[in-house]
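Example record

The entry below shows one chain as it appears in the dataset: sequence first, then structure tokens.
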Amino acid sequence: MNADEEREFREFVAARSRSLLQTAYLLTGDWEQGRDLLQTALASTARRWSKLRDREQPEIYVRRALYHAQVDRFRLLSWGRETVTDSVPDQPSAQGANWADAVVQRQDIMTALRRLPKRQRAVIVLRYFEDRPDSEIAAILGVAQGTVRSQTHKALVTLRTTLAEAGPSASSNASGRGVTA
């Protein structure tokens, strides 16, 4: 990579890393794993920066690298899994009940999102958290637009079922995010 290409890459990373980190977090469900995932994707992009055909849209390449790196990590047996519990260990005070309900709702949604298959999770993250159109999601994931729509439908059915089983607190929050529409 020459000096101009390195400058372009650094500018891209400075401008887009916050958004990319949020995507990585949503894909992994953990900030530290999200940071590691983003570093992996950016390192892969840096190695290929001079060969990217469309310099106007390197973000699509990075997002595709994020998705594929997450799938690869999931396949590794060395990555541990979180243990999900049915109850919160500490009970909130009456004063903090509204705040605690919001936290529980968010946890229910994140838990349901983590249970989705990787491609369905990626489609939901790109569609509802990043507000991207089908054509862009298809380009990022390297699939057809029909696949994006079918994966979205399957994911929404699964999320609705999971959130309904979690109770009314989860589904009331989810309806505001476009999950139960």
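Notes for this example: Residues 3-28 form the longest helix (26 residues). Helices lie at 3-28, 31-48, 58-75, 97-115, 118-129, 134-141, 145-166, 168-175.
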